[in-house]
Write a structure and sequence with these properties.
CATH superfamily of the largest domain: HAD superfamily/HAD-like
Strand order of the largest sheet: 1-2-5-4-3-14-15
Order of helices and strands: HHHEEEHHEHEEEEEEHHEEEHEEH
Largest sheet: 7 strands, mixed
Number of strands: 15
Number of domains: 3
CATH class of the largest domain: Alpha Beta
Oligomer: single chain
Length: 422
C-alpha cells in the first residue's frame, strides 16, 4: 500500500498562523518598553509595529517571505493621479468570512478588506450598535442580526433598527471619505449584519465600504478609572445604591456622558434621558451595587428597584414626570468598558499609512470611553434606539459637519463641539 501523501497546504498555514503570534508578541514587548519610557500610546503603537516588522524581516528567509501573502502598498498620493490598484491575494483565513472578504490586513490580520481605497479622500470610521443600528429588542426579538422569513425577506424591524437616513448619509459622505466600520463584535456577525442592511451589497454603486474591523482589533484600556489628582474632591458614600447625575453643558438627550461614582470615585457612564437639558439632574444606580445587596440580603431585585424609584422619585428640575402615578425608572450606569479602538492600528499599516493619519481620520461612536485612545479624532453621537426613529435627525447633522471639515488642510484638534453652528 502506498503511504498517504502529506497535506501540502497545512504546513504553510500553520507557519503563517505562527508568524502572526510571533509578530503580536514582538509588538507587545516593544509597546510595553516604549510606554515605560513615557512615549505617547499612539506613537508607541506605530513604533512597536515598525520595530517588530523590521526584526522579523531581518530574520526571515526568502522562502518564508513568499509564504506570507501581503497586500501591495498603493502609490503615494502626492505623486499619482490615478487610484491605487491593489492586488489582494487570498489567505487561508479569508475563507471563513466568505466572498465578502477580499483579504486580511493589519499586524494581526484582523482588518477585513471589502473594498479599495481612493486617493485624496479622508477616512471615516463608523461604529454599528446604537450608532447606525439598534440591536435592542423589537417585536419580541433581539436584533443582533436581522432575521428573514421563508421567502427571504427581512422583517419590518430592519427599517426601524437602522438610523433614519443611513443610506443617504453614506452616499453623501462617500463623495469625500473612504468608509470603514469598526464594531466590538465578532467578524462573522458584523459582515452578516452589514450584508443584511444592504451596506455590503455588491450591486449598488452609491457607496462602497473599504474595510471592517472587529473586537480582535481593539486594545485593552490602560488608563486609570479612578479620579485623577487635581479633580474636584468628593465625599464618598459607602454602601450607596444610587446617586444623581447632572447633565453637563453642551450635552443633549441620548448622549453618553461620564460621571463619578459616589461610592468609590471611579468613572461611570450613563445616557442622558429624553427631555433633559444642561443643569438638570436624574437618578442612576451605581454599578454592581444592586446585585451586591440583593445577594447579601436575599432581596428581590424588582422590589429593591421599586423602592429606589419611590425613594428618589423624579428630580424636581429634571423635567421628567412620573408615568401614570408611578415613580420614574432609575437608569443603570456602567463602568468604563475594558477595550478601546486605537486608530493607530490603521495608521500603522503599511497599506494605509500613505493615505490616512491623525490629520484626516475621524471615528464616530456613541460610547465616549471606547474612543478614549483617540479623543482628538472621535465624534460622539447620541445613542440611537428604534423607538426614536421618527424623530432622530443625527445623521443629517453629522453629514453636514463632515462636509464642512472635509476641505480643511487638517481636521480640527477636537470634535467635541461638532454640533455648534449646525
Amino acid at each position: 500500500m502506498m503511504p498517504e501523501s502529506p497535506n501540502t497546504t497545512d504546513a504553510p498555514n500553520k507557519r503563517a498562523a505562527s508568524s502572526v503570534v510571533v509578530l503580536k508578541q514582538r509588538v507587545h514587548e516593544h509597546f510595553q518598553k516604549l510606554m515605560q519610557s513615557g512615549c505617547d500610546p499612539n506613537e508607541a503603537a506605530v513604533q512597536a509595529l515598525a520595530l517588530a516588522r523590521a526584526e522579523l524581516a531581518g530574520e526571515a528567509t526568502a522562502s518564508q517571505k513568499e509564504e506570507f501573502p501581503t497586500v501591495s502598498s498603493p502609490p503615494a498620493a502626492s505623486t499619482s493621479l490615478t487610484p491605487p490598484t491593489w492586488h489582494i491575494e487570498k489567505t487561508a483565513n479569508c475563507s471563513k468570512y466568505g466572498p465578502l472578504c477580499l483579504g486580511l490586513m493589519g499586524p494581526f490580520q484582523s482588518i477585513c478588506v471589502v473594498g479599495e481605497p481612493r486617493l485624496h479622500k479622508k477616512l471615516l470610521i463608523l461604529d454599528i450598535d446604537h450608532t447606525i443600528y439598534d440591536p435592542s429588542e423589537y417585536g419580541g426579538s433581539k436584533g443582533s442580526t436581522v432575521k428573514s422569513n421563508n421567502s427571504g425577506f427581512y422583517d419590518e424591524s430592519t427599517v426601524a433598527r437602522c438610523r433614519p437616513g443611513l443610506h443617504e448619509f453614506l452616499t453623501e459622505v462617500y463623495k469625500l471619505y473612504d468608509i470603514m466600520v469598526w464594531s466590538a463584535s465578532d467578524m462573522l456577525r458584523i459582515l452578516t449584519l452589514l450584508q443584511q442592511l444592504g451596506m455590503l451589497d455588491a450591486g449598488h454603486s452609491d457607496y462602497k465600504l473599504l474595510a471592517v474591523l472587529d473586537r480582535d482589533s481593539m486594545s485593552e484600556f490602560s488608563g486609570s478609572s479612578k479620579a485623577e489628582d487635581g479633580d474636584a474632591k468628593m465625599d464618598l458614600v459607602d454602601g450607596a445604591l444610587a446617586q444623581t447625575v447632572t447633565v453637563p453643558e453642551g450635552a443633549i438627550p441620548g448622549q453618553l456622558i461620564e460621571a463619578r461614582s459616589i461610592a468609590d470615585g471611579s468613572a461611570i457612564f450613563v445616557s442622558i434621558p429624553p427631555g433633559l437639558k444642561p443643569g438638570d439632574t436624574f437618578p442612576v444606580t451605581i454599578p454592581g451595587a444592586i446585585s451586591s445587596i440583593v445577594g447579601e440580603c436575599d432581596i428581590d431585585v424588582s422590589e429593591l428597584q421599586l423602592a429606589l424609584q419611590m425613594s428618589m422619585g423624579p428630580s424636581a428640575d429634571s423635567g421628567c414626570e412620573a408615568i401614570e402615578g408611578n415613580a420614574a425608572p432609575i437608569q443603570n450606569s456602567r463602568r468604563r468598558l475594558r477595550n478601546v479602538k486605537p486608530l493607530s492600528l490603521i495608521w500603522a499599516c503599511c497599506e494605509f499609512s500613505p493615505l490616512y493619519s491623525e490629520k484626516n481620520t475621524v471615528i464616530v461612536d456613541d460610547a465616549v470611553d471606547v474612543c478614549g485612545a483617540n479623543p482628538h479624532n472621535s465624534i460622539q453621537c447620541a445613542r440611537y434606539y428604534w423607538r426614536d426613529h421618527d424623530t432622530d435627525s443625527e445623521l443629517p447633522r453629522l453629514g453636514r459637519y463632515l462636509a464642512s471639515i472635509a476641505n480643511l488642510p487638517s481636521f480640527p484638534e477636537s470634535h467635541k463641539c461638532w454640533r455648534d453652528g449646525l
